């Protein structure tokens, strides 16, 4: 007999009921549905279904003696839908995590009173509970319970409304040995010279696609360089950066400003090979690199957020970059980034 690894589903339960109605025994039913008879016995025991029930008779002057069921077969009361719901309920109860705060408990009443009446935060409630009751209580436990059972209180009484706290993300992808944007010279912030760049990556909305587009924008002229990467790794970013800047004069390459993602972790190697000075913007401060962010938004005109980068060839990407570099910009007095960057000697007044 073939050994099945999956559990009995609902349609098999209905088939079992039909076979039982035809007065088949449990081993015969198991053979018909290609299951082991112990599987069906276990199914009946777990769901309190009576089968082969022993009967007792009293012999005069002696004790009760068990007597097996009569020779005629007794019908088994088997309701498939009831069995299916019982099994689903057991699964739900088994997967339920233990919660310190239960409904109608004194702790729940204390927490709800402090949130609704006194408008305390979860950290204040946990600290006061430890002070008064000398019992441990974590603020994360309170947050988890409120989000699961009283979500309507979040928008009304919590300071961050429906937004969850993100303290756990602070140290997740922390890059080492960074030079922050605060140390960047003021001449770069005022856009008074060329060859200062901002880099970023454009990712697809689906997590299973590793292909990204690496974008590089010159701060003063808004000139765009873009390249498609097959994998979202620091090796590809390093090699692509070296390849792009190897074609430029060494004496003109000055600075570059990065985001805080993992693909820029080898920034010291980039400084060594390209002679660039690398700076990093602050986490969650995209406005510090708004030149690059705005250019990415313009590039999304040709590649919307639901575009799979596997369908975008290098020729198409070069075409989009060329269109953007030859588009007049109001902040450049309606000159194009190509004119400003390539022919900057004639546009030195910008």
Short account of what is shown:
With 350 residues, the protein is of the alpha/beta class.
Task: Describe the protein in words.
- There is one protein chain.
- The protein has 350 residues and is an alpha/beta fold.
- The chain has three domains: 10-95, no CATH class; 106-164; 181-347, Nucleotidyltransferase, domain 5 (2-Layer Sandwich), CATH 3.30.420.10.
- The chain is built from 14 helices and seven strands.
- A five-stranded mixed beta sheet has the order 5-4-3-6-7, with helices on both faces. Strands 1-2 form a two-stranded antiparallel sheet.
- A hairpin with an 8-residue loop joins strand 3 (196-203) and strand 4.
- The radius of gyration is 35 Å and the shape is elongated.
- The model is unreliable at 54-58, 67-73 and 345-350 (pLDDT under 50).
